[in-house]
Amino acid sequence: MTPPPPPPPRRRMLAMPAVCPCEDISPGTLLASLATLSADVAAGCDVDRLPALRGGAGVAVRVAGLLREFIEEVRWAAAELPGGSVLGMSELHVALQKMRFLLEDCGRKGARMWVLMNAEAVASELRVVLGSVATAMDVLPAGVVAASDDARELAALLSQQAWRAAVRPDEEDSRAARSVRSMLARFRSGVTPDAEDARLVLGRVGVASWWDCSQEVSFLEAEMLERLEAGGENDNDLVLISGLMAFLLYCRVVLFDRIDYGKADEPAPAPAPRAASYLARINPEGLQCPITLELMTDPVTLATGQTYDRASIKRWVKSGCRTCPVTGEKLRSADVVPNVAVRGIVEQLLLSNGVSLHEPSSKHRCAVDKTASSFGAAAAGGARLAVAFLVSKLCRGTPEEQKKATYECRKLSKRNVFHRACLVDAGAVPWLLHLLSSPDASVQDNAVAGLLNLSKHPAGRRALVEAGGLGLIVDAVSVAAKVEAQQNAAAILFYLSSDAGYCDEISRIPEAIPTLVRLVREGAYRGRKNALVSLYGVLQRGAGGHGRAVSAGAVAALASLLPGDRDDLANDAVALLARLAEQPAGAAAVLSSSALVTRLVDFLGASASRSAKDHCAALLASLCRHGGDAVVALLGKTPGLMPSLYALIADGGAQGSKKARWLVNEIHRHYEQRQPPVAAPPAGDRVIRV
Question: pLDDT, tens digit, for every residue of 397-428?
């Protein structure tokens, strides 16, 4: 069965992809569609709640209302519409579609500040649309306009209002926009803006809480990352977007003392009674990704019909796996399609609990690397001022202020490289390390998550090590109050392991490797995953870590993941065993369990991951080198090994094929040496070759 096509991507602001009705549509059908569309436009916009252009939007809504009345009058009065009416009504249909898009943009959630600063552009587009409505009304055939006296009067009034509509930004809009530009100019000079001016601007657009500010920042960040994803580093809008982001971040950090996850007076819209009853019967576990066991915020479906979170299944396929994780069926294609139904259920479930589901962030990960620049002096100045305020609260604030500051650091550094650099330069790392000892579990959790984000930056890793934070991070893996904090601490060690010097320092901490091994053995999925990749990095670049890992029981902990219900963990375990077996002590620990060797051979034949097969072949080759002929003999007697090696020679990667070929040759050499020599024929029977 062919999967349904994916839905179109989110429409960009001020993009109006109107669709013209087909030429052979009947006038009656087109008129009915116009009636529905005009009613939607007239009733779908709450003008008083718009951040800007309330006057212009009000004109557009009145015009749509008049058009609705005109169409209803024509439908009632006209017995039959002339065929020539299709052209004019089609123009009306296109204009109404564009009007609906514009009004939706004016009221789009999180886009209040963006609409305010682009009010002139929106007003210009709205004037063009109203002109199109007036033109379409003027070219309608007399048989439509004169369907009745009321229709004639409505048509004249509608055309007159559409032509004469004065759509321009309100004076208060212009004043607020000038105030924002003035504050951005202060940011460029590194000067703190007046708090009262900032509050007045926020009040004008209806941003009244920390949550409102966060919604605005999230929208602007998504706009920026989408442009960067599309290669628009030179997009002129990026300077304004990044400047507005800095302004709103500064306001969120400085002006709002309390973090609220939604307005108390404006709760998230509750689902309808039938939907609420439906949601109550849903098992949340059914909405978890089968790979990560986390809620699927961006669900996609494979050709096998199974649904996964997009980021998880992409990692699965990228690792070389070519089977469906649930069914084991071989994938004919790695293409995925969004599961709109599941995403809708997840969104309703979250909204019913007061949580908003934003656009998936995973699709923007490759664009995050492009945020090392601030895209303008205003954005740089605003970010530095906000960061300086945060660091002052980290070091001298009350417990509540420190709690908010750690959370702000976590959010600020999540998807912006420049913000990470600002936090490091302002000295946030030592204070976040200090707050790891806080008795408040939330402060611990946010401090660890912030340090994790900063450890993705080279300067952040250097600051963490220079502040003596390695031991504190190792301790957090074991004793942090929340499991998530322990898992994030293990991930920090992974980023630190990218530097050989840091690997040596981690290896010298007596508790470091045993702590990671314990997390592999006892942790939840994500903790195990982070511990595995951290151990691999430490052993790959650090010296002296192999012996500590073997002594800590790493081989037994890794063996417990084979086979297992998590193929990605099993693949990582084999890669780490291959790394351990490069040293004699590691190879001896693996060989001490004949059952483990058998499981490795079975894994080589059963794994669907090419990279995992390559690691497994390298592991078996290391065992043969360190174990000698006894191990070669053992492998030669193990059923199923030779076919797997021949298959790897044919289909494996370059290193995997090389290791498999070496193993086959060693096994053949061993058995050829054990065969008794063939007796030479008698002298008289020798053949003399010329």
Answer: 999 999 999 999 999 999 899 999 999 999 99
Beta bridge partners of 308: 300
Judged by phi (left if over 0) then psi (alpha if -120 to 50, else beta), residue 335 lies in beta
276 — pLDDT class (breaks 50, 70, 90) = very low
Q: Record the tokens describing residue 213, joined without a space.
A: 């500010």
DSSP annotation of 338: E
State the Cα angle at 250 between 121 and 193, rounded to 5°.
Answer: 80
Rounded to two decimals, what is the model's pTM? Answer: 0.75
Q: Which parts of 286-443 are beta strand (E)?
A: 299-301, 307-309, 337-338
Higher pLDDT, 305 or 619: 619
Residues 308, 335 contacting (CB under 8 angstroms): no
Domain borders along the chain are 27-169, 171-260+368-435, 289-352
| d(C-alpha 25, C-alpha 86), whole Å | 8
Mean of all residue pLDDT scores within the chain = 84
| Positive or negative: CA dihedral 402, 405, 407, 410 | negative
Is the preceding omega at residue 563 within 30 degrees of 0, hence cis? yes
Q: What is the pLDDT of residues 536-561, one digit of tens each?
A: 988 887 557 888 899 999 999 999 99
The answer, yes or no, to whether residue 682 has pLDDT greater than 60, is no
Q: What is the DSSP string of 315-331?
A: HHHHTTB-B-TTT-PBP
Does the pLDDT of residue 157 top 80, yes or no? yes
Bridge partner list, 330: 323
Rg (CA), the chain: 33
Sheet holding 299-301, edge to edge: 307-309, 299-301, 337-338
Whole-number Å distance between alpha carbons of 637 and 631: 10
Query: Fold for domain 289-352?
Result: Herpes Virus-1 (3.30.40)
Degrees to nearest 5, angle at CA 485 with 431 and 299 = 125
Cα 569 to Cα 63, 150, 306, 504, distances in angstroms: 61, 74, 20, 25
**388: exposed, middle or buried (Cβ count in 10 Å: 0-12, 13-18, 19+):** middle
- 424-to-20, 217, 409, 450, 454 alpha-carbon distances in Å: 53, 21, 11, 11, 7
